[in-house]
Amino acid sequence: MRPDLLGGIADVDRLDPDLRAWTAERVARLEADARRSADTHLLRLALPAAWGIDLYLKDESTHHTGSLKHRLARSLFMYALVNGWLRPGATVVESSSGSTAVSEAHFARLLDLPFVAVVPRGTSARKVALIEAQGGRCHFVDRADEMCAESRRLADEVGGLFLDQFTFAERATDWRGHNNIAESILAQLDREPHPVPRWVVVGAGTGGSSATLGRYLRYHQLPTGLCVADVEDSAFFDSWRLGDPGVTCERGSRIEGIGRPSLEPSFIGTVVDRMMRIPDAASVAAARFVSERLGRRVGPSTGTNLVAVARLAAEMRRRGESGSLVTLVCDSGDRYHDTYFDDAWVAAQGWDLAPWLDVLAEELPVRPA
Fold first, then answer.
1. Among residues of the chain, what percentage have pLDDT more than 90?
2. 69-169 has which fold?
């Protein structure tokens, strides 16, 4: 009789049909949510025709949860599900200054999972209210550089999952396509005068958007430059400029949603062609400037982007170049009515917006097209 060779193989079977069925049903919920979601608009702001420069704003504030982070949150939950990291009833924990947490709270509720956002104490009251309105709970820390460590501790304490946008943002999104933001922008530009942008400008919070855009541009062999607009009290600019991943800042960014006290794993500097560090007063002034011209408020990180656009447009004019510039409306300014759009609060920060408003009016004489 032959020996039972197959029976002698070491074997550990961890297949859990119930968990696989739960995961499959939650993946289907996320897919259904994506199908219900229309693409965001690409707005054109008209510059003087003689310039030959077209300016577009990808309006990510129109997502269901009101910001660019809606795309990221869905991708992070999908990534966690297909990696087998989520279980029924597990508490999801995230480090976030606000917008990511709002979107993640929405998707956690969609999947019937508890959600806790670890946020700095200075986060706007409006954002805290939005997180709670989506079913999330806020856990406060004193400093931005304490968020990730506290999130890990809290997740371990409750047996949950730290979703960790700062590590996984660059890998959770399919940068080759599959309805990512880069693919959407290029498709919407297809019938425009300059369908391949000269520059795309984004800020950096996790680095996920810049990683997706930079990889996509290279994968499709496009000559478009990627410019990242950083802010004061953020490590990204100096780290990239010096080639030193160890750069840190003692205080956190005052422009909510972008800037970090240390370099995050999702920031892929090698796909970035240019960086600018924008003064905080300029970011706030530009948010107000474009809000007046759009007829609705946009957040301060959108202002950061717009100041970099103004610099690029001025350089293109000096060189006699034509082409298109694209940046993002990251979120709605309604979330900041008691901070960046409150004159007394702005004055308390020591910001003088008037000089920047004058510069922007001269360098970007825009109107809705």
1. 86
2. Rossmann fold (3.40.50)
The answer to whether residues 99 and 67 touch, using CB atoms and an 8 Å cutoff, is: yes
Listing DSSP states for 47-94 in one string gives PPGGG-EEEEEEEGGGSTTSBTHHHHHHHHHHHHHHTT---TTPPEEE
**DSSP label of 41:** P
CB atoms within 10 A of CB 322: 13
Q: Is 351 left (phi over 0), alpha (psi -120 to 50) or beta?
A: beta
Q: What is the pTM of this model?
A: 0.92
Residue 127 in this model has a pLDDT that exceeds 90? no
Give residue 369's pLDDT band: very low, low, confident or very high (50, 70, 90): confident
Q: What is the CATH number of domain 39-67+175-368?
A: 3.40.50.1100
* Extents of the domains making up the chain: 39-67+175-368, 69-169
DSSP notation for 330-341: -BBGGGGTTTTT
**Which of 61, 47, 363, 40 is CA-nearest to residue 194?**
47
What token pair was written down for 136? Answer: 């999330």
* Nearest of 257, 126, 284 to residue 202 by alpha carbon: 257
| 39-67+175-368 and 69-169, same CATH topology | yes
Neighbours of 34 (CB within 10 A): 14
* Residues 321-338, mean pLDDT to the nearest whole number: 95
Contacts of 145 (CB under 8 A, 6+ apart): 248, 252, 261, 262
Q: State whether the Cα torsion 340-346-351-352 is positive or negative.
A: positive
Cβ–Cβ < 8 Å for 92, 159: no
Answer for the pair 247, 234: CB distance below 8 angstroms, yes or no.
no
* Per-residue model confidence as pLDDT tens digits over 252-307: 899 988 999 999 999 999 999 999 999 999 999 999 999 999 999 999 999 999 99
Three-state secondary structure call for residue 326: strand
Q: How far apart are CA 319 and CA 317, in angstroms?
A: 5
215-243: burial string, b at 16+ Cβ within 10 Å, e else? bbbeeeeeebbbbbbbbbbbbbbbbbeee
For residue 226, the surrounding DSSP H or E stretch is strand 225-231
DSSP 8: G
